[in-house]
Amino acid sequence: VEVRVRRAGSAHESPAENGLAHAVEHMVFKGGSAPGDYDARFERMGGEASAQTTRDTTAYRVSVLPEHADAAIRLLGELVCRPRFRAADWLRERQVIREEMKVAASDSRKTG
Fold first, then answer.
1. What distance in Å separates the CA atoms of residue 61 and residue 73, rounded to the nearest whole number?
2. Which of 30, 45, 80, 108 could tie 68 with a disulfide, CB 3.0–4.6 Å?
3. Closest CA to 70 of 1, 23, 18
4. How confident is the model at residue 110, as a pLDDT?
5. From the candidates 2, 13, 17, 25, which is the catalytic residue?
6. CA 73/CA 69 separation, integer angstroms
7. Is the distance from CB of 28 to CB of 83 less than 8 angstroms?
8. What are phi and psi of 78, to 5 degrees?
9. Intervals of the chain under pLDDT 50
């Protein structure tokens, strides 16, 4: 199952907003009663969740066992439509994103 949010990518950010779409992508998965709650719930359905931000879209996807498809669709909808943005999670996630940026900067395939 995949939910793709159009006009939610880096091409739609102003210079002052640079990186915000990627940060929001990360923060959406921090929802639930505690950080990691959604990941654990999808794993109990025999699956996993992931997300990706591109220039035009942000995609949130989950794959689960077929018998859990309905529950996964509801949960993915909850995750995307009612994210929780806690201050402590923003602080932790900034460091995660910085590390991702360092890795991408060291990958010659991504830098030119």
1. 10
2. 45
3. 1
4. 58
5. 25
6. 6
7. yes
8. -60, -45
9. none
pTM, two decimal places: 0.78
Q: Which residue has the tokens 């309905």?
A: 70
Q: Report residue 59 as tokens.
A: 């995609």
Q: Verify whether residue 93 is a known catalytic residue.
A: yes
Q: Which DSSP string do the residues of the chain spell out, in sequence order?
A: -EEEEET-SGGG--GGGTTHHHHHHHHHTT-SSSTTHHHHHHHHTT-EEEEEE-SSEEEEEEE--GGGHHHHHHHHHHHHHS----HHHHHHHHHHHHHHHHHHHT-HHHH-
Which amino acid is it at 93? E
Q: Which of 17, 48, 93, 99 is catalytic?
A: 93
Can 2 be counted among the known catalytic residues? no
